[in-house]
Every structure is written in C-alpha cells, then in structure tokens.
Amino acid sequence: MQGFFSAKGLAREGGLTFLRLLVGLFLVYHGWELFDAAKIKEYATWDLFHHCTWAPLLVRSGKGAELAGGLLLAAGLFTRAACLLIVGTMLFITFVIGTGKIWYEDQYPFLFAVLAMVYFFNGPGRYSLDHHLFEKVQ
Questions:
Q1: 3-state secondary structure of 136
Q2: What is the pTM of this model?
Q3: For helices 12-31 and 107-122, what crossing angle results, to 10°?
Q4: What is the pLDDT of residues 51-61, one digit of tens each?
Q5: DSSP string spanning 71-113?
Q6: Per-residue confidence at 6, pLDDT binned at 50, 70, 90?
Q7: Most Cβ neighbours (<10 Å): which of 1, 12, 13, 89?
Q8: Measured on CA atoms in the order 118, 120, 126, 127, is the torsion positive or negative?
C-alpha cells in the first residue's frame, strides 16, 4: 500500500503507452471523417467558414492533421512533431472554431491538446517506434 501513495510512478511505461495508444486512436477516429464527403461539406457550412471559399480545404486539412497526428502518436513515431501538429490543430479548434470555453463547451479539443503536451514533454516511452529507431542500443 505504501507504493500506491508514493510519489514514484506506478506502471509508468505501460500506463503511458496505453494512454498514448488510446489518445492516438481517438484522434484517428475523428480524423477518419476526412474520407466522409458529407461530413466535410457539413463542417464547411459552419458560420466560421461562411465567407470562406476554401472552407472545404481548411476542414480537410484539420481532419488530415487529426488523422496523421493520431496515427503517429499511436505508433510513437516522430512523437514530438505529431504532438505539435495535434496541439496546433486542437488549439485552433478550441479558440478559433470554438469559443475558448475550456471549462465547458470546448473542453474536449482542449484536453486533446493537453494530452499531446504531456507526450511532447515526456516523450513516447520505451514501447514506441521512436525508442526503437532513435535510441542508441547500449
């Protein structure tokens, strides 16, 4: 029981890997709408895009960023670059598309940004492609 209340991590590698996979797969799920023409058309009709002739391109770019960022995060490949992509996209959704109410209406994309920042600063961990490709074998 002492370990439970300790300041030390608890199953850190496995737990963070599970969460990285989960967050990445949620982003892939949302980014998969890139291939749904009806959804893209629906998003492009939002008030923000009312006078924007390139609205479908902007929507597709956002969905592509969610898909690519999610795939890279889940795999733990180029994790910090993927996190920057995710953070930028989610903060745009939170503060430009949304109203910036991070405690209520725009909490969901903001939490994706926060979780991506965790992996930006913490790295993907031992169970990642980054670890296998870029760490020196000792």
A1: coil
A2: 0.90
A3: 130
A4: 888 889 999 99
A5: HHHHHTSSHHHHHHHHHHHHHHIIIIIS---TTTTTHHHHHHH
A6: confident
A7: 89
A8: positive
- Residue 70 near residue 119 (C-beta atoms within 8 A): no
Q: 40, 33, 122: which is closest to 73 by C-alpha?
A: 122
127, 13 in Cβ contact below 8 A? yes
Q: Which of 111, 117, 104 is nearest to 30 (CA)?
A: 111
Q: Length of the chain in residues, anyone?
A: 138
Residue 92 identity:
F
3-state SS string over 25-67? HHHHHHHHHHHCHHHHHHHCCCHHHCCCCCHHHHHHHHHHHHH
Cα distances (angstroms) measured from residue 25 to each of 9, 50, 75, 76, 109: 24, 31, 10, 12, 14
User: Two tokens at 63?
Assistant: 């969905």
The span from the CA of 133 to the CA of 127, in Å, is 11
Checking if the pLDDT of 138 tops 60, the result is: no
